[in-house]
Amino acid sequence: VLVHQLSKGASQNPFRKNKGRVTRVLFHPAKPFFYVATQNHVRVYNLAKQSLAKRLLGGSGSITCLAIHPSGDHVLVGAEDRRLAWYDLDLSDKPYRALRYHTYAVRGAAFHRTYPLFASCADDGTAHVFHGMVYSDLLTNPLLVPLKVLRGHAVTDSAGIMD
């Protein structure tokens, strides 16, 4: 992972010790946090303090995708073990809920920007749409409800929907 600073025309390699292949990197929507997903872990770095803020513990499968809720307090992590893990960053570094609705590896996950919806897609050729209501009250757990399964995509060479 290289970080380029366009104003100075300089590049940095702050993550030289990464173990495993980097699968996804994302920025927090509002705070100076940087998410790096490798095959086994998701690490959250605080860019202001230049330190590791949190390490999310994954499951047994290799991580394939990562999505951040627009509020920035929740993360979706998809893996090859057919699971989509919902993390509440304020609660724990372990998954709040592991959703296992796909029959093959999960390849993509995304949150809707304004509506309480999220989706996942996998190599089985299906895309699952969920209602994911996040409450402003921190004591109330998120409400996760499966809504619809979208079918009709062709699976070619064991690859279904990629994103």
Describe the structure.
The chain is mainly beta. Helix content is 0%, strand content 48%. It has strands at 3-5, 10-12, 22-27, 33-38, 41-46, 51-57, 63-68, 74-79, 84-88, 97-99, 106-111, 117-122, 127-133, 143-150. The strands form four sheets. The protein has a four-stranded antiparallel β-sheet, with no helix packed on it. It has a four-stranded antiparallel β-sheet with strand order 7-8-9-10, with no helix packed on it. A hairpin with a 4-residue loop joins strand 5 and strand 6. The protein is globular, with a radius of gyration of 16 Å. The model has no long low-confidence stretch (mean pLDDT 86).
What would CATH call the homologous superfamily? YVTN repeat-like/Quinoprotein amine dehydrogenase
How many separate domains make up the residues? 1
Low-confidence region ranges:
none
Please summarize the sheet with the most strands: 4 strands, antiparallel
- Number of DSSP strand runs: 14
Question: Could you spell the SSE succession in H and E letters?
Answer: EEEEEEEEEEEEEE
Placed side by side, the strands forming the largest sheet appear as 3-4-5-6
The oligomerization state is single chain
CATH class: Mainly Beta
Helix content: under 10%
- The gross shape turns out to be globular
SS class: mainly beta
* Separation of the first and last Cα atoms: 21 Å
Over the alpha carbons, how many angstroms does the gyration radius reach?
A: 16 Å
CATH architecture annotation name: 7 Propeller
Strand share of the residues?
over 45%
- CATH third-level topology: Methylamine Dehydrogenase, Chain H
The average pLDDT score comes to: 86
